Amino acid sequence: MNKKITKVISLMAVFGCVAIAFTSCGKHDANSPGVEFMPDMYRSPSLESNMAYVKIENGKETGDTMQANRMPVAGTIPRGFMPYAFPDSPEGNEAAKTGAKNPLQKNEKNLKDGEVLYGKFCVHCHGATGMGDGAVGLKLPGAPPAYTAPDKINMTEGELFQIITYGKGLMGPHAPLVNQEERWKLVLYVQKLQHPNGVAAPAAAADSTATAAAPKEEAKKK
Ligand code: HEC
Q1: In what helix (H) or strand (E) does residue 64 lie, and over which residues does it extend?
Q2: Which residue's CA lies nearest to atom 34 of ligand 1?
Q3: How much is the pLDDT for 48?
Q4: Domains, the chain, with CATH or none
């Protein structure tokens, strides 16, 4: 009985040693993955996309690399994607002020979508009515100003889009969170919060007064 137990224990010890030998790190190269016990599981024979492969001939690396697929031509964009022309810089902000135009119509659906997005991404800082009194906004060292503050109410759609895209001060950039179309919907909704009565009026009229007034304001300030 005792002999049997010692046999089992020594077998386990041998197995343990073998396991450690296979899994321990390579001695010479700190980056070596060590012995690959079942390399087939790591290295599938099929080519993975966007992977560079080292060319091997007669068991030796030739120094060439091969790629499973070709890199797209420089400047390639996904189908349906519109690049945004205004960079995150003082010049970009200035140019976007009048240059960036909302491609979306101010209709019920887009406003509703904007409201839903606002409820997910903005309300906690800016508050439900855009007064800057969201639960998180009030905890910030400087709460966001109300969208209707005298120096904010006449911001152009381009300025609003630029801020939502790249962020400002304590507000982070939202380009990684919401796509361009969603950001323009948010612009529509912020404008609705700024001019709650403007929305009740015919959309086109409200729009033209909102955008036409803004550049004049800016001109006066200078
Ligand atoms: C982390 C809190 C936070 C979130 C989330 C946030 N903002 Fe802001 N936002 C701010 C702060 C703070 C400012 C003031 C920045 C400054 O002027 O330095 C600001 C400024 C703005 C401004 C400029 C006008 C103003 O009131 O100062 C707009 C427009 C704006 N945010 C829209 C949005 C929209 C739309 C969203 C949702 C997509 C959003 N923000 C999400 C904190 C936030």
Answers
A1: strand 60-67
A2: 122
A3: 80
A4: 2-67 (no CATH), 90-221 (1.10.760.10)
